[in-house]
Amino acid sequence: MIAIPDRTPLVRKFFDRPVLEVAPDLLGRLLVRITPDGPIALRLTEVEAYDGPNDPGSHAYRGRTARNEVMLGPPGHVYVYFTHGMSSRSA
Predict the structure, then answer these.
(1) Which partner for 14 in 10, 18, 36, 71 could form a disulfide, CB atoms 3.0-4.6 Å apart?
(2) By its UniProt entry, which PANTHER family does this protein fall under (predicted)?
(3) Contact yes or no for 70/52 (Cβ under 8 A)
(4) SS3 75
């Protein structure tokens, strides 16, 4: 039997928990964006979780900046960054 994923939109309260609890609950969920050409949907198959000012790997570790402000704001917002020059080629 194939499980049908829950398509109920997540409310902000879902995200108002510690990041290390939220991250695994996002796996398998759909991210949907409505565009003029129709909806675009993708399934989250991998997530990363950084514990803000408590995690040296986080862009928020050294405090609030214009770049990372959304990470330290209210829950339910997304921080997106582009990693320039990333490549799967090996040396």
Answers:
(1) 10
(2) DNA-3-METHYLADENINE GLYCOSYLASE
(3) no
(4) coil
Q: Coil, strand, or helix at residue 41?
A: strand
Tell me the two tokens of residue 61.
Answer: 């570790």
Q: What is the structure's pLDDT at 90? A: 57
Question: Are 70 and 37 in contact, with CB atoms under 8 Å apart?
Answer: no
Asked if pLDDT for residue 30 goes beyond 70, the answer is yes
Question: What is the three-class DSSP state of 14?
Answer: helix
All structural domains of the chain with their residue ranges: 1-49, 51-91
Q: Which residue has the tokens 């398998």?
A: 28
Q: How many residues does the chain have?
A: 91
Residue 89: per-residue pLDDT: 61
